[in-house]
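ARCHIVE RECORD
Type: protein–small molecule complex
Small molecule: copper (II) ion
Source of inputs: curated submission
Record status: active
Notes field left blank by submitter.
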Amino acid sequence: MLSPVSTALGTDTYEMAMRTVTRSILPGLQTELRTYNSQFPGPAIKARRGRPVVIRQRNELMVDTSVHLHGAAVPPRHDGSPMDAIAPGAERVYRYPNRQAHASLRYHDHAHHVESENVYRGMHGSHLLTDDEEVALPLPKGAYDVVIGIRDARFDPATGALVYQMSDRARSTLLVNGAPTPYFKVAARSYRLRFASHANQRFLELRLEDGGDLVQIASDGGLLPRPHTTGSVCLTSGERADVVIDFSRYPVGTRSS
Ligand SMILES: [Cu+2]
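STRUCTURE (tokenized, with ligand):
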């Protein structure tokens, strides 16, 4: 979660820099990434309905960028249109009114002709908008409300570089919140897992290893009219699905394989 630099005048103001960083993702290899604030994935923003968020974005990359808040109702000049780019070395202030209902939103690069590659190289993150209606519901909160951003990648085994090709069917490494072999220790209780696809071409189908039920409570547009019990959840590029799983149904000490 990113902390605002100011909360004055009823507005949460943030600053982000888009820059290249080198990180170890696969053991023994260094990978160059295009990031928001040197983080992969980008930092998450928590927003509340009725409280505008202002983000100053500085482009320290060598390519054009444009920041689009996917699923948000915003005025055109703050929408991150593909042709409305931030040139290398320039900055831009985006203002998000957050007047709409709660939803798990995501932001990503949107610059003409380079969006696909920018997103693939790391330019994606979450913007979680909540409101009084959602807060009043008995849903898992705080440490039990977890964003799980999933995407695929192909690494050059010799150099560690992310290999970018259009229509690449060989992106065989799945990354969850940037990690190739994600592991998360849960308590014997209910969690809200906010799945988000940051893959720019792969379709995902998520299910539990034991085939157990998933209770989907939300999609891109916020909470569903009622919980939906299902065996699997499909996500196409950019889609979100919030699921509640009660891990108390598994004996303490259970591990997935
Ligand atoms: Cu989008």
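CURATOR ANNOTATION: The chain has two domains: 8-135, 142-249.
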